[in-house]
Amino acid sequence: MRRELAIFVFKIAILALGLVGTYLFFSWNLTRTFVADDYSKFTHQTPSLVLGLSRAHYAFDPATLDSVLEGANYERPFQNFAFEKSQSPYGEVYLGAILKKIPENTSGGIFIMGVSPGSFSASNRLVTPEDIFEFDSKTMLGKMSDYNSDPNLEFVRKCFGRSLYKGIFPQEHRISTVFHDNGWEEFRLYAPGYTISQADIDFWQEETVTGYTKLAAVIPEHVSDYRLEWFSRTIDSLQHKGRVFLVRIPMHRGVLALEDGVWPSFDREMDSIARLKHITYLNYRNRSEDFETYDGSHLHSESAKAFSRDVARAIRDQIEQRAVVEYLD
Amino acid sequence: MPYKRIRMLFNSFEFLFFFPIVVVIFYVLPHRYRWFWLLLASYYFYMAMEPALILLLFASTCLDYFCGLQMHRKKAPAVRKRYLWMSILGNLGMLFFFKYLVFFTSSSQAIMEFFGIDWLGGGSREENYVFNKILLPVGISFYTFQTLSYSIDVYRREIEPVRHFGRYALYVAFFPQLVAGPIERANRLLPQFEKRISVDLDRIKWGIVMMAWGFFLKLVVADRLGVYVDTVFLDPSAHKGLPLFIGSLFFAFQIYFDFSAYCTIAIGAAKVLGYDLMQNFNRPLFFTSVRDFWRRWHISLMLWLKDYLYKPLLSKFGMNKILAVLIVFFCNGLWHGANWTFVVWGLLCGLLLVIEVGTQPLRHGILKRMGISLANPVLRFVTWLTIFLSITTSLIFFRSPNIFHALLYIRNMFSVNSTFINVTYDSTELVLSFILVLLVQVIHYYKGNDRIPELLIGRSPVFRWGFYLAFILVIVLFSVNRQNNFIYFQF
Questions:
Q1: Quick one: pLDDT at residue B7?
Q2: For A30, which of A24, A167, B8, B231 could close a Cys bridge (C-beta 3.0–4.6 Å)?
Q3: More confident residue, A196 or A282
Q4: Is B405 a catalytic residue?
Q5: A45-147+174-328 has which fold?
Q6: Measuring CA to CA, how many Å separate B63 from each of B35, B52, B67?
């Protein structure tokens, strides 16, 4: 019996090892291909970051930022660490992730924090700070603990919601979007055999406004003190690591009207926070004519590049001005 | 500082470590300590999900243990009845408070508002309730019914009460079936905790194969169907016709595979430890009538409702059978969740049964006059299809967040103007889903829900090892990595 038992345990151990080994192999194999939209945001540390929600995710091209800021005194490169689908509102979870993304000895980074009412809102069902923390813990950022490994098998285990056989066969790519290693998702209006017309854009913009209105009725939200508190703590923490800039990204007039309805004093409050923290608030709320969105809320490729250039120039001017002031002091 | 909870689900990595440790220590320990180890493991399993709510489980255990002993000791029927009521009210009271209070309050307020009375003092319904903070204890419906059956059986003198508190606590908390059944009876499970269990490799192998089959059902089949189901149910207004029909079809299969996966893993895990749990499914899709379906689906709950509700309604209250059936199915619906959608689902199922039984003489008379035999295969198929589609449609209420959502879904499902079914934009997954549903049905047809390990018995080592390796590949490559809860965890 003892011998039989030993053989049985041995066989089970072999099978268990086989299972784990096969799983690790195919997980690793997957990471050699396209894993998921946000995978590249979880593969390396970087001293300068773009933060915020989906608008920032589409609006800031880190390569453009680095190129315009070439020669400025800051630690490069940039990475876009903003997320789609409301994965990254300001809070304890997001700050924890941000601090892990930045190398410990960073002191000259640049941190562009995208702001909009959505970054500070929470569902009315989430009343206490614990409720909001628990909600945030279920986001991609909350589930992860390792934000800087390549390959990142934790990401595959916790955030890859499909089957590993997808790593064996070529992945399907959406024609209109390109995911860059620096975290930027580029939305292209033109690709071979594919053009998004102005009629499409008009339709999507209208849909977005209707969708936001519907969503606000179905899942009512409030401006959360918890999020504002952690936003303030995020600025404080990042100021130890470099310079912080708040940016309101341009959007369609209809969406802006909705946001103004929800939080009329938003820009005033952002201004006062910026003054209080001695940082700059770059407000592009009325620049939707210059930087066009494809769906009312998110900038398309060309607009994003132009917008990134514009913001980078503004940041460079700020850095130069401050350098002059510091020199004169 | 808030903390992150461990997700002790059968389909979690944590369980992969937890279970082997429990098994090894269980077999290493002498018999007299094993109940304690299993109880400890069971409480840990439960506390991993929500530590504070173990107090509720413990309170329920103490209440029924005490009432059971008192009902046995006291001779006077009135006193015995008092203890029975104490147990029933105590358990149902906890169930009501934790599961139904918010539902009851919000429904009452809606009715009051209809008559222009604002009895909760204004504001939105959701914001008003301090009760909204009440946590729904995992598995409360399951263990409440299990402990209630014990008290009622002791009262009826069908079983002797247990004197060993630890073993009774283990009966209530036994981790394989604690959170989603099967709802075991005391006379089946309790005696098993007394008997000495030795290492039986054949039994352990059987249990492991059952568990593996359960994991396959959950990770590869049910969760895959869930992707499609979630997409169409999220916004039924975005789809019309065929995709919604497929969504409802897939949900019927998803809930079956998901729940039967849980039960299969539970049965397998218990088997590895040397215990037999009852079957909860017996090839439910191979039914011949509505009655037959309910004999095959969620057997432990349906038997419970039959023994402790349906029969007393007929014998004690002399109730009309139709009314009794509707009450039983109303309770069946409400047991599943505190939402009107579950009530409607339950009543629809009851109505279906009533229609079947009520129209039987008429239907049989017509068929006789037409000269069509009841065994006619075309007739049997048409009957099967009608029942299947009726059940599938009723499940739309089960899956929807509210009645309006369900009605919108049904309305759009019958607006046939779209044949575009690839709503997840992944045709491979769609084809795979259909193939897997078919494959599982074929296997269930030949081996039922409980004899899957027979596929490997008597086979050559080469076949078996080939099968194991293929199985590992299938699980690793085709599992849908969603780490979803089992659907029945919410009940």
A1: 64
A2: A167
A3: A282
A4: no
A5: Rossmann fold (3.40.50)
A6: 20, 18, 6
